[in-house]
# Entry
Amino acid sequence: MVCVSKNSLTAEKIFCMLIFSYLEKETEMQSVQGVYFLKKIANEKLATIRFKRMISAQLTCILVPFQCPFDRTFDLVFCKISIPPLCKINPLYDGVIALKVSALKFLEERNIDTAKYQ
# Structure
């Protein structure tokens, strides 16, 4: 994977930035602090992403769901089984949702119908 390629996807750039930032700083941190540091770096990188092309904003809107995909309820004959959403436990959930909102705003500024992405 080449991180400096002009045509690479936004997700690939995010992945490269996260891995390289983590590898540079991991030797300075203990393992528990390293996980917290990785979360902090990832959220900072997600917050700095700005969309310049419509295709990357559209791809982000397609790939990131607004609702948690893990919230399921199964009705069996005698009981109902509910699997609670685990997205709030995910440390990157808020950053990824903020990224989707940013992509939707970008598309709305260019008069693109965003109803199909919600």
User: Anything to note?
Assistant: The chain has one domain: 10-117.
